[in-house]
Amino acid sequence: MIPRLQVTDLSIHAVGPLNLVVEPGECVGLSGPSGSGKSLFLRAVADLEPHGGTVQLDGTEQALLPAPHWRRQVGLLPAESAWWFDTVGAHFSTPVTEGLQHLALDSRILTWPVARLSSGERQRLALLRLLENQPPLLLLDEPTANLDEENTRRVETLMVDYRTRTGAGIVWVGHSKAQLQRMADRIYSMAGGGFNAVTVVS
Amino acid sequence: MLKVVFAASHPLWMAGMAAVMLLAAAREAMARQKRRFAGWWGFGLGTGAMFVSSFTITTFALLAVIRVSPWYTAQYAIPLLGMMLGNTMTGVSLGLDRLTEAAWERRTVIEGRLMLGQTSVDAIADIRRASARSAMTPTINAMVAAGLVSLPGMMTGQILAGNPPMEAVKYQILVMFIISAGAGFGALIAVWVGARRLFDDRHRLRLDRLDNPA
Description:
The structure holds 2 protein chains of 2 kinds.
Chain A: E1 5-12, E2 15-22, E3 27-31, H1 38-45, E4 52-57, E5 60-61, H2 67-73, E6 74-77, H3 97-102, H4 119-131, E7 137-141, H5 149-166, E8 169-173, H6 177-183, E9 186-191, E10 194-200
Parallel strand pairs in A: 3-8, 3-9, 6-7, 7-8
Antiparallel strand pairs in A: 1-2, 1-4, 4-5, 9-10
Chain B: H1 2-8, H2 11-31, H3 40-66, H4 74-105, H5 107-115, H6 120-123, H7 125-144, H8 146-160, H9 165-197
Helix pairs in contact in B: 2-3, 2-4, 3-4, 3-9, 4-7, 4-9, 7-8, 7-9, 8-9
């Protein structure tokens, strides 16, 4: 079977070489202290950072796809989301009513100015915006960092649904060991410029 | 030095004088930018934009509008080029300063757009337009107020020199249009090329291509 994501000898500045395989429908957890290169790794996979080594999505080499096309397939949710239009709704191109319901957000939120959003609302809306592209691979950088427990569970359920429905692969960066154990099939800890300990979760 | 150049009116002397003026203007334009492109790009981008716009438009004005013979006659070419460079310098430095500063401040927005699959051209479009607008503002202001504010002032020199006011105003209006065209053209080139230079061929925002402000 062709892996969803195959990273071979990836190096970014002093980080790496990194090797990682994510199968379709698999969720790989990534933890480690701040500054260990987790976000940098996600950025390199999304081709936002110059890097060495090869990255393949479903067997296709990163350099062979135009960068915008690659990034629509490799959906990166950054730790802090960016908004550029005045209202929330202008950032969405499809109706997202179902997603809003799923994350317990009122559909009127789309008419709000962006400045009115709380950090937790921003984080959930950014995830919905990312899912509009239906990416077969998701790179989530602490996707529940700003959420209370209840909303964290909602995001987790949404991700499990998305993964089983579409067969998407997920790389989940997070600090909560309990959460990674709930979500991930395998957990790597990142330190000293490489992936170290491997925990296989049943 | 000007006296020698004016007396000789030789193309080589003219070229030398024009080069000195261009380099001086480019240096000034570079000094007005907080975050400039690193290495040769910092100097080359402004110089290139000013060279292309000022020299083509000055040559065009000399050949097609003023029609002096030979077209490089120093008495016409040097003052025209000087006014062109002076104004283009303002436009280029304002445009590039705004572009690089805004790209730095709004990098998360630019990258946020890239992450969702936008091209680099789309991701920086707002910033590019705003930079072009602020580069053109001094020129547009000058044009708007031209009739009542700038033209009488500029004509005075010519009237004092003994030219009839109608002749003087015609010449000044011409100069003003040429200057506006040159400044606008130069600023647009600089902002457009600069916006391209902020990204690499993989549509990655490359702020590492900018120097840190001193």
